[in-house]
Prior knowledge:
Blueprint lengths: L1 H21 L3 H18 L5 H29 L1 H5 L1 H26 L3 H17 L19 H7 L3 H30 L4 H20 L1 H7 L2 H20 L4 H7 L7 H15 L5 H31 L1 H34 L1
Helix pairs in contact: 1-3, 1-14, 2-3, 2-6, 3-14, 5-9, 8-11, 8-13, 8-14, 8-15, 9-12, 9-13, 11-13, 11-15, 14-15
Amino acid sequence: MSLLYFSGVLGQSISGYICDLKSTIKKVHFFWMLFLATSIFFFFKANHTIHRGILILIIGFFQSSVMVLLDSWTLESNNTLKKNFGPIRAFGSVGWGISTLIIGKIIDSFGWSIVGILYIFFTSLFLVITYNTKDAKHENHKKDGPSITVSNLKLLMRNKKYIHLLIIFFILYMSFHVIGMFSVILIEDFGGTKAHIGVFLLVAALSEVPILLSANKLMYKFKPSQLLIVSSAFFLIRTLLTAFSNSVVFIILLSILQMLSFSILIFISKYLIDEVSPDNLKTSSQSIAMAISGGLSALVSLNLSGYLADSIGIRNLLFLLTILCAAALILSIRYHLSYSLYILKKRL
């Protein structure tokens, strides 16, 4: 798992830079999907531990990259798609929720080797559908536009608003990963079965859909920074309540809070990063942000949380995580205040 997240962090960072450098997302995404499908197919054919370890590194590199590039492709294509990113992203949650029910039964019937074949099939279907889809081209990618250099990336990392957001996202994604892992462990500790875990994952996935479908309406009524405060607050509430959970049903019910925590974070993080990013580094900004907040946070939290859970117990770990979520909430409020001041100055 650590290998997967480590290579994922590298993949997302490098892939975004390549897209900005070559002024294309579609072509990079197309080839990355081919490499990913091939790697997954051979992973389930490999019998040697070293071979599987190498393939996990390759899969992590491409899998994390295609996800964030697909988001960037949507956001950078045109304003219509950008405004409807939330509803578009909702279909991903629906697909993931359905797959948790179907794929498990298929594996039980045909074995794990069927996964590689299924991935080849769905990748081929995806590539056929997207073949004639317009690439995300940007004005800043014209030949006479500013060049993409490593120095530009250094300037990005000195962007205070960008770093402020990364810290908030890093903490919230840590909470997401830890809650996801320990909720499953707690379900088993409370006497739950694999069926209960499946219901937990399904409810969590489907709870994202209503918010994502209404994302553009929420963006019309509220500022992005206000929604970030809401998301942070519900991450805090869910983490705290999970610490006090005492039954399988309670854990499953708490997964509904993913609706107002993670589902808001999914789309609002994209808009907030887009707002503070230089025009010539839109894809790099998104991919680096996802590499740090999603990938690096998973690498740190999943390894560190296991050690802390053994040392201080799961409940105390969750209390500690609640304090971090409170810090993220405070930082979100601070960002909102500075964001409002920035918009006011810009209008004047």
